[in-house]
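>> received
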Amino acid sequence: MERRNFFKNTLITTGSLLLGGAVIHRFLNDKEQVDSSLPPVVEKIHQGDGRNVLVLMSAGTRLGNTDRLTDAYIKGLVERGHSVTKVYLGSMRIEGCRGCGACQRNARHQCVVQDGMQKLYPLFEECDTVVMASPLYFWTITSRLKAFIERLYAISINDQYPSKNTVLLMTAGDDKETTFEEPLRYFRIISRVLGDNEKGTYCVGGCTGCEKLARQIDKKHLDNAYEMGMEL
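>> returned
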């Protein structure tokens, strides 16, 4: 075996344990494209004649409990005839607001931070309904979803925001009366800021999370989310 090939194969074998074989393979073969089974960051799921719904799925894990709950809700939306765009915030680079104020000093109210939000501002502007989907992390929504909300400040005018219908979907391992108190309180503040048009919340406790070998959400919750989507 040539020394170059030996070194290359050794890196692949070792790197697969540390970073994942696909990452190392891409590093050593930058001209070769690696197929990915993951869906795109922004999915245009359905074009209908109903509402224009922007779904923000903020869990870092795809096909986990929050994603499955979200897809059940989306199924109801699609069958109802709504247009649906799904965004995987957990796969995007979105910074929090820097508080620099530049957006309020320029006439177009544009954020100067160049990251994934630049794709999301037009989608937010076009939609009439925003669905926020999040697992419970440290008693509230994910940092990615919080960052998205913070960055809406850029498009505010005199602290006024576009009017949107709002929906919250959440999952958690805990299943107590107080489990979702904090995120629900925060969501209702955001809903009031966006015109006080809350269209529903569905928060599911008792889900098996990353501590177990398999994530698990009761099918009854998926059925309920689907029905909720049908009712929008």
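>> Helices lie at 3-18, 21-28, 65-80, 102-105, 117-126, 143-151, 181-193, 219-231.
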